[in-house]
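During the second year of the project, the team shifted from modelling isolated chains to modelling whole assemblies. The rationale, set out in the original proposal, was that interfaces cannot be judged from single-chain predictions alone. As a representative example for this report, we include one of the complexes processed in the last quarter. Its constituent sequences, exactly as entered into the pipeline, are reproduced here:
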Amino acid sequence: MGRTARCFVCGSKAVAYVPYLGDYLCREHFVEYFERRVLETLKTFRLVEPGDRVAVAVSGGKDSLTTLYLLKRFSGELGIEVIGVAVDEGIAGYREYKLKALADLAERLGVRIFIGRFEDYFGITLDEAVGVLKEKGFEYKPCSVCGVFRRYVMNKLARELGATKLATGHNLDDEVQVFIMNALKAHIEGVVREGIASATGGEGLVPRIKPLYFVTEKEVLTYTLLKGIQTPFVECPYIVYALRHPVRHWVNEVEDEAPGFKYRVLAVKELARKALPEPPGGVQKCVVCGEPSSKPVCKACLFRAYLDPEFAAKLGGLKLISRLRDEGV
Ligand SMILES: [Zn+2]
Ligand SMILES: [Zn+2]
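Output from the structure prediction step:
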């Protein structure tokens, strides 16, 4: 941003360039733009209805904290109740700092936070799980296991708390990155599934919503800085194993060269989603744990069996693990 950048609304000193508007905004008008854009997303796509009890999946990062902050702020106008659900994966030197940031904001907002621990749900922390994955030569990446476990805990916890919606902090950059990764892996079901809201879901699945779907990572960062929403700069130590990491860098490089690239990718994604057939629906109950699953045994139980020989033995051992491979988890 050059020294002469001025807000296009009022002419004051600009704080941010907004690619969607193709122009600069000052502090006041950026905050107004950002909040209005999120509120309009919630209303236009009917992400919530009056009477909803919305559980915000909070990691303690800037995106989820902003989602919590804004939903709480709009709760009166939207007629909703807001609570927070967090997952403690058991990642030493990372999770405790993020949970602290979350506790601080929750107190400031007067929102109750509920925490689910991998150790309590699966009998293993992520750090321990990564030890096992390493021994087995990283046949599965830490983020694959963590993602499946996190979704499981978030959904179960939110449902048990009586939540009617589960809001996540996914922003436009996340959506673009995930779309590109799904496309690279030819994972068509993933492309179709990852929209602004989940299809009404099935028995036991809390419908998911993404209020930050149309704002960029950089805009969220600017907003948190302006509003004093703080989170420590610690990164998950396992990010180095994720394909996400290089994809994110690449997308940002292209965006710098060609502003608006991310919006064009999102547009392609929406067109693709409309053109593709709906994935086969139908939710059943996992025969092992009773949670919703598209297959007789859910992915969380399959991963648990893969990581824990005792759990696998209880379920019929190797036969089950070979199914994990057959299904291409
Ligand atoms: Zn202005
Ligand atoms: Zn299960």
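The chain has two domains: 31-281, 283-329. The CA atoms of residues 30 and 36 lie 10 Å apart.
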